[in-house]
């Protein structure tokens, strides 16, 4: 397989299951002892803000920069995010992709790119 970002993961999951995918992703986040506390217990509003961002990622459109993404919640600028936090966030996405049986090669190529973008959001030391 070529070393390019997969563009079909969203379709593999299926638009009809995307809300469930997002719920499962936030369940993994909330269950994570390191980053769960960074997110509200009621993540419904946050989920709606993340949906365009996540659906773009799952389609291979990874464009978030340090200047931010208009689709992401603005309060992340006030939240300290370490490299470990970024790794944990990516791992929660990995777990969710595993739950939806995304093939290993597609999953790992996507996650490598997502991880680089997650590191761009780091604003705190370890």
TrEMBL record:
Record-level Gene Ontology MF annotations: heme binding; metal ion binding; oxygen binding
Coiled coil start-end: none
UniProt keyword list: Heme, Iron, Metal-binding, Transport
One Pfam family here: Bac_globin
Keyword Iron: yes
Keyword Metal-binding: yes
Domain of life assignment: Bacteria
Protein name (record): Globin
Organism encoding this protein: Alicyclobacillus mengziensis
């Amino acid at each position: 397989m070529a070393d390019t970002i997969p563009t079909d993961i969203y379709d593999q999951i299926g638009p009809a299951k995307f809300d469930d995918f997002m719920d499962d992703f936030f369940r993994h986040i909330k269950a994570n002892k390191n980053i769960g506390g960074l997110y509200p217990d009621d993540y419904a509003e946050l989920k709606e803000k993340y949906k365009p961002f996540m659906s773009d990622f799952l389609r291979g459109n990874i464009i978030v920069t340090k200047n931010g993404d208009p689709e992401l919640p603005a309060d992340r600028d006030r939240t300290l995010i370490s490299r470990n936090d970024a790794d944990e966030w990516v791992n929660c996405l990995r777990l969710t992709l595993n739950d939806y049986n995304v093939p290993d090669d597609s999953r790992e190529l996507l996650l490598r790119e997502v991880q680089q973008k997650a590191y761009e959001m780091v604003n705190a030391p370890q």
